[in-house]
Amino acid sequence: MTETLRTPLLVTAIVAAGLQAGTYYVWACGVMPGLARADDHTFVTTLSHVNQAIVNPVFMLTFLGAPVLAAAAVATGTPAARPWLIAGLALSVATVAVTVLGNVPLNNALGKAAATTDADLAAVRAAFETAWVRWNVLRTLTSTAALAALGWAALRS
């Protein structure tokens, strides 16, 4: 049974890792540079709305599914692929950790400030933007490395 599940699990883990890496890459290359050109009100309200919208079943399936599928791939992987699968799993878990420990607290603070009518939006933005971009770059790197490790594992299987 393990052999039957090996390839479908690995392919699914690679797809989930790719979706995660692509999400953070688009934020790093397009969304945040575009919003950097916006005024403070647009920046804060747009990000507040996006942060609310992204917590949805489809996103959460890949966000939480990527490390779960990588773990399943480790469990069913061949000995030759296992070191790369473990690396992919560790990097996928790191991506979740960076998001939960870095980006989510900033998102929550931004959302609270956006809901306050007398918030100094320039100060809110200043407390958010640079730190959030740095955390996002880190999770872009970890998720992309997870994708690469899982892809390499597929070649080693």
Features:
single chain; 157 residues; mainly alpha; 5 helices
Q: What do you see in this structure?
A:
- The chain has 157 residues and is mainly α.
- It has one domain.
- 88% of the residues lie in helices and 0% in strands.
- The chain is built from five helices and no strands.
- 32% of the residues are buried.
Radius of gyration, taken over Cα atoms and rounded to an integer in Å? 18 Å
Helix- and strand-based class? mainly alpha
Helix content: over 70%
Strand segment tally: 0
- Rounded mean pLDDT is 95
In DSSP terms, counting alpha (H) and pi (I) runs of 4 or more, how many helices?
Answer: 5
Amino- and carboxy-terminal Cα gap: 16 Å
Number of domains: 1
Shape: elongated
Which regions are unreliable across 5 or more consecutive residues at pLDDT < 50? none
Binned strand content: under 5%
Major sheet: size, sense and barrel closure? none
Q: Could you state the order of secondary-structure elements as H and E?
A: HHHHH
Quick rundown:
The chain is mainly alpha-helical and 157 residues long. It is built from 5 helices and no strands.
List the helices and strands and how they pair.
Blueprint: H1 2-35, H2 40-54, H3 57-76, H4 82-114, H5 121-156
Helix pairs in contact: 1-3, 1-5, 2-4, 2-5, 3-4, 4-5
Transmembrane segments: 54-77, 84-102
Pfam families: Anthrone_oxy (PF08592)
Keywords: Membrane, Transmembrane, Transmembrane helix
